[in-house]
Amino acid sequence: MIELKGIGKVFPARRSSEAVRALENVNLKIGAGEIFGVIGRSGAGKSTLLRLVNGLESPTEGSVQVDGREISRLSEAELRAERQKIGMIFQHFNLLWSRTVWQNVAFPLEVAGKSKADIRKKVDYLLERVGLSERADAYPAQLSGGQKQRVGIARALANDPKVLLCDEATSALDPETTSSILQLLKEINEEMGITLLLITHEMDVVQEICHRMAVMEEGQVIETGEVEQLFHHPTHPLTRQFVHQVERAPAESPSGVRITCSSQSFPQVWGILQTAKNNGVTVNMLGGEVSEEDQITFVLDGAQEEMDRVLHSLEEYRLQGEVKSRV
Ligand SMILES: Nc1ncnc2c1ncn2[C@@H]1O[C@H](COP(=O)(O)OP(=O)(O)OP(=O)(O)O)[C@@H](O)[C@H]1O
């Protein structure tokens, strides 16, 4: 369904910056109906790769094919038509804030010139499917993060795409909401046979839904394979690091720092932990549940400098007794 052959991408030098080689000799083949994950650290080239697949960027070398068509050789009009077959969801949802949930999902159908009756039928069906019929008249600002992403998913599905590109689609969500969104994506893949290409820096996301995966570093794919196989036999040191990220998950982590917060302070604490996560700190929720005493425990692990930074950011809550920490 998606085939990248010998892809290179160089962003040319600008007055204030040198040329950047974002991708080098990338070869990937993703079959129809597959859920494929691309994992890598920040700057590895994941977003550039995704943007090549929907034609927002063109490669400097090599070819990108989606459903048998060479994306980089299409005219603007052909590309617009082709893009209707490719849905996309984003980390920050990219919803239209002045439109209701219903109108957000209707938008791509209006652009495609569908009749009013068709639009009504389709939007009602999609909102039902993602569990948001009740919130049809709400505005995005009135929704939780998980609900916003459900709108994003419904909108991406409006034109019956064959491929759904997911750009860090769960990175702004808490673990529980992440699981429910991943579950929804899995169901959509199974029911509709849509091919999913997902980029992330979180191995647990890959582990939860992907069939196969690629690991990227400095613009290159350094390892590919079945998720199961890479989990049990990672060969590249970076793949091992990503696997380790998950293996340390809810298990007792002897070297980690435990942070316990009340569910009341959770939103603020979670914001701080998200920033730490983006800076390479491993954050795992112990047991993944709110305990009887209404306390949530996380285990954090990472470079000393980043750990100091996150503990410093949490200081205010520690002083208020809202957060407790111990090594
Ligand atoms: N439009 C652009 N112009 C110049 N350089 C760019 C452009 N887009 C990306 N790059 C560079 O290409 C490299 C790969 O970036 P890319 O955003 O694809 O990585 P990534 O793995 O998605 O990282 P992140 O998760 O931080 O978005 C980086 O060095 C980045 O600075």
Explain how this protein is built.
This protein has helices at 46-53, 76-83, 101-111, 116-129, 145-157, 175-192, 203-209, 227-232, 237-247, 266-278, 304-319, and strands spanning 2-11, 20-30, 35-40, 61-66, 69-70, 86-90, 163-167, 195-200, 212-217, 220-226, 257-262, 282-285, 295-301, 323-326. The protein is α/β, with parallel strands linked by helices and 327 residues long. It has two domains: 2-246, P-loop containing nucleotide triphosphate hydrolases (Rossmann fold, 3-Layer(aba) Sandwich); 257-326, Alpha-Beta Plaits (2-Layer Sandwich). A hairpin with an 8-residue loop joins strand 1 (2-11) and strand 2. The protein is globular and about 60 Å long. Residues 11, 20, 22, 40, 42-48 line the site of adenosine-5'-triphosphate. The site of adenosine-5'-triphosphate has 11 residues, from strand 2 and helix 1.
Task: Provide a concise account of the structure shown.
One of its GO terms (molecular function) is ATP binding. The chain has 327 residues and is an alpha/beta fold. The chain contains 11 helices and 14 strands.
